[in-house]
Amino acid sequence: MTAENAVRRLVALLDDPDSDVDATIRLADEIAASGDRGPLPLLEAELDRAVRDRNPYAREVLGGVLGQLGGAPVLPVLLRASAVDMGEADQDGLATEIVDVALTDPVTARALLVPLTRDPDAAVAVRAEWALRFLPAPPDA
Q1: Residues 6 or more apart from 74 whose CB is under 8 A from it?
Q2: CB proximity list for 9: less than 8 A, separation 6 or greater
Q3: How far apart (Å, rounded) are the C-alpha atoms in residues 62 and 59?
Q4: What is the pLDDT of residues 67-80, one digit of tens each?
Q5: d(CA 78, CA 74)
Q6: Can you give the pLDDT at residue 86?
Q7: b/e for 54-77, b at 16 or more Cβ within 10 A?
Q8: Is the predicted pLDDT of residue 1 greater than 80, yes or no?
Q9: Do 91 and 60 contact (CB within 8 A), yes or no?
Q10: How would DSSP label each residue in 61-102?
């Protein structure tokens, strides 16, 4: 199965309320472990759809795969997705993914997060400030 087909299969599982959760997580882990960055645009589009559809489960799973494959450059996408209030009590998985991704490349993460602290969307700005707290101090501080 190609990486793009695997992502499409993952999305189908996420869209099916009767799908096997273990199979869904297993497939997400396989996609992330593949290292194939080819499906990043598809993952980003599907994450956007999950947010529009107000699907916190899909947001968390897709955000995790996107973060693991995309690294620090996808932080703005992950932060914008996490800034949408879907009424769930927490976003532990997505929050952890954001911190883990930021820590893989703190210099790039800081360069991407600092401008987001001035984002017109206050929720995005707050999430960016939150994420910055996990980064080590810059060398010139």
Answers
A1: 40, 44, 66, 67, 101
A2: 1, 27
A3: 5
A4: 999 999 999 999 99
A5: 6
A6: 84
A7: ebbebbbbbbbbbbbbbbbebbbb
A8: no
A9: yes
A10: HHHHHHHHHH-GGGHHHHHHHHTS--S-S--HHHHHHHHHHH
Share of the chain above pLDDT 90, in %: 87
Taking alpha carbons only, the member of 98, 19, 94 closest to residue 62 is 94
Residue pointed to by tokens 């994420």 = 131
Query: What type of residue sits at position 61?
Result: V
Please name the amino acid found at residue 134.
F
Q: Residues 13-25, buried b or exposed e (16+ Cβ, 10 A)?
A: bbeeeeeeeeebe
Return the closest-CA partner of residue 63 out of 10, 138, 113, 17: 10
Written as six digits, the tokens of 28 are: 């997400």
35: left (phi over 0), alpha (psi -120 to 50) or beta: left
The reported pTM is: 0.92
